[in-house]
Every structure is written in C-alpha cells, then in structure tokens.
C-alpha cells in the first residue's frame, strides 16, 4: 500500500482527505495523522479503517442482506444515503466472493 499525504494546514476545517492507493480487499488499516493540533494540544491521531468490498451494510460480512440492500437501490441516483450500494466499480476490481464469505 502506498500512502500519499503531505503537510496540510487547515484552520477550523473538520475534514482532511488522505489519498490511498494499493489498498486491497479484506484488510484493516491504520492511518496516523501526525502533529495534529487543536491550537493548544498537539498529538498523533490514529484513524482505523476496515476494507471489505461489497459489504454494503457495514456488518463485516458479505451475504444475502448485502445483495437485497443493493437490489433495492437499482436505478436510483447515487447520494450520500446510498453510495455504499453502488458496487459497480467495486465489482469490477475485486475477485468474486461467495455469498457467505466472512473475513473476520
């Protein structure tokens, strides 16, 4: 995995974007933000993230519930409320998984 980040100074901005490349399916990663300051305190902040393609409901498993949830959004525009169900790009980039696979 390659982490691309650079020194960012944001005053009062609650969002920081870190571009990751080479992240594969079925893994947990930690991205540490170094020297984060609230104006008084400075420290390193670990951000934890799990990657599991096609797990549209976020329960750490890929099963028939994910299939049903995805089917319920067919033909709908992608929005912040349903973006996880938009698996077209994910499906092309990941190996085929069985319906009952669970990486945990």
What can you tell me about this protein's structure?
The chain is an alpha+beta fold and 104 residues long. The chain has two domains: 1-51, no CATH class; 53-104, no CATH class. Helix content is 13%, strand content 26%. Strand 3 and strand 4 form a beta hairpin. The chain is elongated, with a radius of gyration of 17 Å. Residues 91-104 have low confidence and may be disordered.
Give the secondary structure arrangement, pairings included.
Elements: E1 2-4, E2 19-21, E3 27-37, E4 42-51, H1 64-71, H2 88-93
Antiparallel strand pairs: 1-2, 3-4
What is the compact description of this entry?
With 104 residues, the protein is α+β, with helices and mostly antiparallel strands.
Q: Major β-sheet, in short? A: 2 strands, antiparallel
Q: Can you write the helix and strand succession as a string?
A: EEEEHH
DSSP, total strands = 4
Radius of gyration: 17 Å
As a percent range, the share of strand residues is: 25-35%
Features of the shown structure:
alpha+beta, single chain, disordered C terminus, two-stranded antiparallel ribbon, 2 domains, elongated
């Amino acid at each position: 995995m390659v982490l691309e980040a650079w020194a960012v100074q944001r005053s009062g901005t609650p969002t920081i974007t870190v571009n990751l490349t080479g992240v594969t399916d079925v893994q947990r990663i930690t991205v540490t933000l170094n020297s984060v300051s609230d104006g008084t305190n400075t420290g390193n902040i670990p951000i934890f993230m799990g990657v599991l393609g096609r797990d549209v409901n976020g329960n750490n498993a890929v099963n028939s519930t994910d299939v049903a949830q995805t089917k319920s959004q067919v033909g709908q525009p992608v929005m912040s409320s349903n973006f996880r169900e938009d698996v077209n790009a994910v499906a092309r980039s990941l190996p085929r998984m069985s319906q009952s696979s669970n990486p945990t």
